[in-house]
């Protein structure tokens, strides 16, 4: 199998590391060679966080270069737009509609860009948007946006629902298990 490349992008504290852990656990159980790399930036201060997940028969490097990502899973709309140059031709962005103001917007030095989704689509990028925050809240917690997005991503792969649920069970604490399963299913059905 040729190597597949997934970038998970967002803002610090949104759960991108748990999302990559869940995905990595599933891929390992399926026997893939997998490499994961995390770049935290100023994540504790609301800065960008990007995780690279690469899998296939043999993967030599965890880093995804520009033009190589098959999927970009974004927890926030501006982060989706920020990483588009990494998407390969024909790749897909799966993004939450959520908008989190970066520091320049908070301080009044800049405005949050408008119509980011339309601008990306005008460049020929496939943008699959969903209101992951509302779905996460329906599941029981706004913090479950990451699992909602993993549920939506799951539709792009041939792994069974049971395999995904097993990975969730092994990745999240027992007290949050039902909430995360519900969030995953809401994302998968969205």
Strand content of the residues, in percent? 15-25%
What order do the helices and strands follow? EHEEEHEHHEHHHH
**Order of strands in the sheet with most strands:** 2-3-1-4-5-6
**Helicity level, as a percent range?**
25-40%
The CATH architecture is 3-Layer(aba) Sandwich
Question: Major beta sheet, specifics?
Answer: 6 strands, mixed
Q: Given this structure, which CATH class is correct?
A: Alpha Beta
Look at the structure and name the CATH superfamily. Answer: Pyruvate-ferredoxin oxidoreductase, PFOR, domain III
Could you please say which CATH topology applies here? Pyruvate-ferredoxin Oxidoreductase, domain 3
Q: How many beta-strand elements?
A: 6
Tell me the count of domains: 1
Coarse morphology: globular
Mean pLDDT: 92
Radius of gyration: 16 Å
Structural classification:
alpha/beta
**Unreliable parts:** none
> What gap, in angstroms, lies between the N and C termini?
29 Å
Distinct helical segment count: 8
């Amino acid at each position: 199998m040729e190597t597949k490349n997934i970038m998970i992008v967002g803002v610090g504290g949104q759960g991108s590391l748990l999302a990559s852990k869940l995905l990595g656990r599933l891929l390992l159980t399926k026997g893939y060679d997998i490499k994961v790399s995390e770049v935290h930036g100023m994540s504790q201060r609301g800065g960008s966080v990007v995780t690279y997940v690469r899998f296939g028969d043999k993967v030599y490097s965890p880093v995804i270069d520009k033009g190589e990502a098959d999927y970009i899973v974004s927890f926030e709309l501006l982060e989706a737009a920020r990483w588009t140059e990494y998407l390969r031709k024909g790749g897909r962005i799966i993004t939450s509609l959520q908008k989190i103001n970066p520091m320049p917007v908070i301080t009044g030095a800049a405005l949050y860009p408008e119509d980011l989704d339309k601008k990306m689509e005008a460049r020929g990028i496939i943008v699959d948007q969903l209101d992951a925050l509302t779905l996460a809240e329906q599941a029981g917690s706004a913090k479950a946006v990451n699992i909602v997005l993993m549920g939506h991503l799951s539709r792009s792969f041939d792994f069974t629902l049971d395999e995904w649920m097993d990975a969730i069970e092994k990745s999240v604490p027992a007290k949050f298990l039902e909430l995360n399963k519900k969030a995953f299913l809401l994302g998968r059905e969205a």
